[in-house]
Amino acid sequence: MTSPVPVVQVLLSTWNGERWLPDLLASLARQTFHNWQLLVRDDGSQDQTLKILLEWQKKHPKQVTDIISANSIGSTASFDQLVRKSSAPYLMFCDQDDVWFPEKIELQVEALYQLEQKYGRSAPLLVHSDLAVIDENKQIISPSFWGYRGFDIKQRKQAYLLTNVVTGCATIFNRHAAQLAFPLPPEAVHHDRWLALVCAWLGHIGALPHPTILYRQHAHNLVGAKRSVAAGDVHKRIDLWSQQANAFLRCFSARLNKADYQQLQALADLQYMKGWERRRHIVQHRLFKQGVVENLALLLFS
Fold it and tell me: How large is the average pLDDT for residues 264-281?
């Protein structure tokens, strides 16, 4: 990079993470990129999480911007508060149970810098990478999360309305993306899903086709690497996607052309429909997900 090395803030939300935190913090200490800071919000842990964090802060005082201990509000709201408190030009989400490859920050900073050279710093920009999926004992489940889930990473922006291929802990995004996407509207399904939607529709997303992280799966994952969704959840998820589309229209309608506005409105209208009316509307407006099985479930159980 020819420009001054930017500051990267790593936003870590923790909750009862004493079992996993030592691995994560050790991987952060091994980063080949050194101009980063850790901003932590603990979401009401009842175990030794805060003690582990404070001890790590004593050993690495220059790396820790702040450790905030607060009441439990959930992961999405916790990350929302971290973004709003952040100040750096580049931001990264961090989960307590993962392990970062040593070059994760360096590779993603370089990729985001390249996007800025192409599109300018005033555009909301995001870079994400693949992930290697591991179990709670760090045994490999799949070398590629994208392959494991069958994701089409090159999907068009319209696909982000129903299918999110961006995993928060594998992302880096710039200040303009943070200012545009946050604070989150109440209807945002998840912090990373909303951020990806904003960047896909109003900015640009870049993808690194190799893992930069060991993505740990265990009994307490909030989202994780599930391959499928139970039929009973499909109707609920359609309502959530529809409400999120309505929020997107409320926030950004002035930035949309007529065709984009109409597609978002079509999805936003689904929350008011049931049965065959909803199915006809999905087909008519081509409100589909990635994959044949997913779309069959969408039509059968909507």
Answer: 94
